[in-house]
Amino acid sequence: MDTSSTTLFNNLSMANMTQKPWNAFGECEEWKAGILYSISVEILISVLGLPINVMVLQILLSNTSDSSTTDIFIFNLAVLDAFFSILVLLDFLNLFLFNKENIWYIQQFCYGLKDMGGPLLLCCICLDRYMAVLHPITFTRFKDRKYKIVCIILLWVIVLIYSIAKVFIRTENFERTFTTEILSAFIFLVFCNISILRALTQSGPGRDEMHPVKKKAFRMVRCILAIIMFNYLPPVVLFPFQDYFAPAVFKCYIEPIAFSFLDFSSCTQPLLYLSRAKKIPCLPESDCLPSCSTSQ
């Protein structure tokens, strides 16, 4: 099973390459409910994800002179999520119209970018807040934007290597890389959250309230942890127990639902940013992410 693909369309496309006659539902022709649910989620993400991520990019680009140290990571994450929203449309066209194998290989590479890049960028945001709260002197020393650019370059080198390998290496052990990555990211984010919580509770005697900067950092990391748990924990928990489900049940119901949680990550992060920046009136203000006018 390819647990590293972040949409069900990708799995169906691969299955359809070898099926004659071709059908849009692959092996789930008789059990369409899970597939139809996943397709509905994909359409929602493609419609919602692209404009809200473009809005985040516009905000960041218009406030370059008054940006926070995490903005470079948030910017790259928004680019990745916007790209994923466009990729969903390519998936849809290839599944129901083109059905071309060479397009599928391009999809595999693009999914590698999303699979590895998203969690790594979230970890970078968390690490930035961790250093700001627990090691402020070191954080100030490496606060210069050039260090963040070097970090981003190294991150994308790792992501590109993984994406290329995803296209050419089709073994079960390699496919477990994605699950290992998500588990590692989850553990790292939990560690950051607990460490920041301890630091804030020990901020000093005689203080009834946390320092505003530290409170904002804690809320942001806590919110990132919530995003990780909502988007990544369900597939990580379910996939190792694949053998306990009937093959048809897992392929046609469990897998589509688990992948839908992953897909929502392209919308949850930018929506939280926009709510904090007060750019969407219908959303309540959130302290999960720093506002675009707050520098550090």
Automatic annotation (TrEMBL):
<feature type="transmembrane region" description="Helical">
    <location>
        <begin position="35"/>
        <end position="61"/>
    </location>
</feature>
<keyword id="KW-0472">Membrane</keyword>
<feature type="transmembrane region" description="Helical">
    <location>
        <begin position="181"/>
        <end position="200"/>
    </location>
</feature>
<keyword id="KW-0675">Receptor</keyword>
<feature type="transmembrane region" description="Helical">
    <location>
        <begin position="149"/>
        <end position="169"/>
    </location>
</feature>
<dbReference type="InterPro" id="IPR017452">
    <property type="entry name" value="GPCR_Rhodpsn_7TM"/>
</dbReference>
<keyword id="KW-0297">G-protein coupled receptor</keyword>
<keyword id="KW-0807">Transducer</keyword>
<keyword id="KW-0812">Transmembrane</keyword>
<feature type="transmembrane region" description="Helical">
    <location>
        <begin position="221"/>
        <end position="241"/>
    </location>
</feature>
<keyword id="KW-1133">Transmembrane helix</keyword>
<dbReference type="GO" id="GO:0005886">
    <property type="term" value="C:plasma membrane"/>
</dbReference>
<dbReference type="GO" id="GO:0007186">
    <property type="term" value="P:G protein-coupled receptor signaling pathway"/>
</dbReference>
<dbReference type="Pfam" id="PF00001">
    <property type="entry name" value="7tm_1"/>
</dbReference>
<feature type="transmembrane region" description="Helical">
    <location>
        <begin position="73"/>
        <end position="98"/>
    </location>
</feature>
<protein>
    <recommendedName>
        <fullName>G-protein coupled receptors family 1 profile domain-containing protein</fullName>
    </recommendedName>
</protein>
<feature type="domain" description="G-protein coupled receptors family 1 profile">
    <location>
        <begin position="52"/>
        <end position="273"/>
    </location>
</feature>
<keyword id="KW-0325">Glycoprotein</keyword>
<dbReference type="InterPro" id="IPR000276">
    <property type="entry name" value="GPCR_Rhodpsn"/>
</dbReference>
<dbReference type="GO" id="GO:0004930">
    <property type="term" value="F:G protein-coupled receptor activity"/>
</dbReference>
